[in-house]
C-alpha cells in the first residue's frame, strides 16, 4: 500500500527507514534473489528452508492450520446462529442472549496476550495444541449448561482456552513461511476461520431445528474433535522457533513498543472496527430472519451462513488483491464492499438481504486478511505479542459489535444495527486516510537539481 502509514525501523539498527512514495502499512518484501531449489534466500544449505508453495511441508502446514481455523471459529461462534432459540428457552432478550457470544470473544481478547507470551517460551505448536484440546473438551460440556448464567460462564472459559490459537498461529506463520508467501498463507488460515464459522452455524441451525439447540452445540463439539486430531497429525514441526524467556519486564517493554508504534496502532484499530461490523451483523441477523417479514425456520437461517464461502474466497485472494491494488487499495475496496452490503441489507427483500450479507462478508474477510498480514510483516521483534495485540483488538471489536448490535437492534430494529456498522466503516476510512496523510507529510522534499549541483560543488571544494 503505497504512501500509506510510515516507514518501519530497520531490523538491524532500529533507525527509521526513509519514507517515500512507496511506504506501506507492512513494508513490501525485498525481491528474493535467485537461489538453488529448496533453499531460502540469505541462508546456507544447512539452514532449513522456510515454507512456501512447492517446498515440502507447505501443503501439510496449510491443511493443518485450515483445520485449526475451522475448529476455532466453529467453537467460538457456536451459539451465534442459536440465539433466537436460546432467548426462547430461557426467556431472555436478544441483548442477554448475545452474551453467550460476547463472553467468549471478550475472554479470548483478554487472554490472547498472556498466552502469546507462553508461546514464546513453550512453542507455537504446543500452545495451539493445548488450546484446541481444552476448547474442544469444553465444547462437549457446553450443551449441558442448566441456565443462561452457566452457559455464559462456560462460553467465557471456552473463549479463554481458544486464545492460544490466533496469536500463536500468526507468529508460527511469520517464522516458518517465506515473506512473499505470507499474505497468501495467512489468507488460507483466515479462510479456514470462515469455513469454521459457516459450517458451525449451518450444522447448529439444522440440528437445532430437528433436535434442539443443545444437540446442535454437541454436534459442533464433535466436529471440533475431528479437526483437532487432523491439526495435530498434519502440522509440521517448527524449524525456526527459538524459545524465549517469561520475563514480565521484557514482555511489558515489548508491548509498550508495539503500542507506541503508530502503524501497528492503526492496524489494530482497523481490525477492531471491521470486526465490530461483522459481530453486530451476524449476532442480530438470526433475529431479523426469524421475525417479520421473513419468518424463516431455524434450519434455513443457519443455511444463510453459506455466504461465508464468499469470505473464504476473498480472504484467500487477499494476496492477489494487494498485488494488484496495493494494500491501501485493497483496504478501500474492502471498506466500500462492506458499506454497500450494509446499505443493501436494509431492503425488506430476502434476496437483497442475502446479497448484502455476501458483500459484508467478502469485504470483512478481505480487510481482515490484509490487516492481520500487515501486522505479522511489520513486527520485526515480538511477533507473537504484535499479533496478540491485533487479535485482542479484533475480538474486543467482535464482543462490542455483538452486544452493541443487539442493543441497537432492540432500540431501532435492523436499521439501528446497520447504522452502527456504517459508523464503524467510517472509522476504518478515517484511519486509512489519516495514515495516508501522515505518510505524505513525512515524504522528504526533493532538492532542486540546480541547488543539488551547488551542494555537490561545495562538498567537492571542502574535500
Termini separation comes to 42 Å
How many helices? 17
Give the overall pLDDT as a whole number.
81
Main sheet specs: none
**Helical content, roughly?**
over 70%
CATH topology: Growth Hormone, Chain: A
Membrane topology: Multi-pass membrane protein
Protein name: MFS transporter
Main location: membrane
GO molecular function, one term: transmembrane transporter activity
Task: Provide structural commentary.
There is one protein chain. This protein is globular. The N terminus and C terminus are likely disordered. The two termini are 42 Å apart. The chain has 463 residues and is mainly alpha-helical. The longest helix has 59 residues. The protein has 17 helices and no strands. The chain has one domain: MFS general substrate transporter like domains (Growth Hormone, Chain: A, Up-down Bundle), CATH 1.20.1250.20. This is MFS transporter. It is a multi-pass membrane protein. Keywords: Cell membrane, Membrane, Transmembrane, Transmembrane helix, Transport. It is found in: Cell membrane.
What would the keywords be for this entry?
463 residues; Growth Hormone, Chain: A; 0% strand; mainly alpha; globular
Amino acid at each position: 500500500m503505497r504512501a500509506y502509514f510510515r516507514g518501519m525501523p530497520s531490523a538491524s539498527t532500529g533507525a527509521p527507514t526513509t519514507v517515500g512514495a512507496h511506504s506501506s502499512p507492512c513494508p513490501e518484501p525485498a525481491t528474493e534473489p535467485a537461489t538453488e531449489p529448496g533453499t531460502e534466500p540469505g541462508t546456507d544449505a544447512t539452514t532449513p528452508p522456510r515454507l512456501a508453495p512447492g517446498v515440502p511441508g507447505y501443503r501439510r502446514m496449510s491443511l493443518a492450520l485450515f483445520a485449526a481455523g475451522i475448529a476455532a471459529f466453529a467453537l467460538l461462534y457456536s451459539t451465534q446462529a442459536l440465539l433466537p432459540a436460546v432467548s426462547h428457552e430461557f426467556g431472555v432478550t436478544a441483548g442477554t442472549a448475545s452474551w453467550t457470544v460476547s463472553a467468549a470473544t471478550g475472554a479470548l481478547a483478554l487472554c490472547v496476550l498472556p498466552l502469546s507470551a507462553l508461546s514464546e517460551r513453550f512453542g507455537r505448536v504446543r500452545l495451539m495444541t493445548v488450546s484446541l484440546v481444552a476448547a474442544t473438551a469444553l465444547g462437549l460440556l457446553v450443551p449441558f449448561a442448566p441456565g443462561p448464567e452457566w452457559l455464559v460462564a462456560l462460553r467465557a472459559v471456552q473463549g479463554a482456552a481458544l486464545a492460544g490459537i490466533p496469536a500463536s498461529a500468526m507468529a508460527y506463520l511469520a517464522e516458518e513461511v517465506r515473506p512473499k508467501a505470507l499474505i497468501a498463507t495467512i489468507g488460507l488460515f483466515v479462510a479456514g476461520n470462515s469455513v469454521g464459522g459457516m459450517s458451525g452455524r449451518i450444522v447448529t441451525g439444522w440440528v437445532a431445528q430437528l433436535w434442539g439447540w443443545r444437540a446442535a452445540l454437541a454436534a459442533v463439539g464433535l466436529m471440533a474433535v475431528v479437526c483437532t486430531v487432523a491439526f495435530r497429525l498434519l502440522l509440521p514441526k517448527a524449524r525456526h522457533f527459538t524459545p524465549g524467556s517469561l520475563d514480565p519486564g521484557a514482555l511489558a517493554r515489548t508491548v509498550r513498543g508495539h503500542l507506541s508504534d503508530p502503524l501497528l496502532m492503526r492496524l489494530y484499530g482497523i481490525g477492531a472496527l471491521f470486526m465490530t461490523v461483522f459481530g453486530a451483523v451476524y449476532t442480530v441477523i438470526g433475529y431479523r430472519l426469524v421475525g417479520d417479514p421473513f419468518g424463516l425456520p431455524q434450519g434455513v437461517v443457519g443455511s444463510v451462513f453459506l455466504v461465508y464461502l464468499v469470505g473464504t474466497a476473498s480472504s484467500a485472494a487477499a494476496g492477489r488483491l494487494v498485488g494488484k491494488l496495493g494494500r491501501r487499495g485493497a483496504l478501500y475496496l474492502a471498506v466500500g464492499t462492506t458499506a454497500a452490503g450494509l446499505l443493501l441489507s436494509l431492503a425488506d427483500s430476502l434476496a437483497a438481504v442475502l446479497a448484502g450479507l455476501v458483500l459484508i462478508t467478502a469485504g470483512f474477510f478481505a480487510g481482515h486478511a490484509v490487516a492481520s498480514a500487515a501486522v505479522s510483516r511489520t513486527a520485526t521483534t515480538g511477533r507473537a505479542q504484535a499479533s496478540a495485540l491485533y487479535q485482542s483488538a479484533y475480538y474486543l471489536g467482535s464482543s462490542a459489535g455483538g452486544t452493541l448490535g443487539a442493543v441497537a437492534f432492540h432500540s431501532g430494529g435492523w436499521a439501528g444495527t446497520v447504522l452502527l456498522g456504517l459508523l464503524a466503516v467510517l472509522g476504518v476510512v478515517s484511519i486509512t486516510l489519516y495514515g495516508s496523510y501522515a505518510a505524505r507529510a513525512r515524504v522528504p522534499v526533493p532538492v532542486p537539481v540546480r541547488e543539488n549541483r551547488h551542494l555537490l560543488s561545495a562538498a567537492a571544494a571542502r574535500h
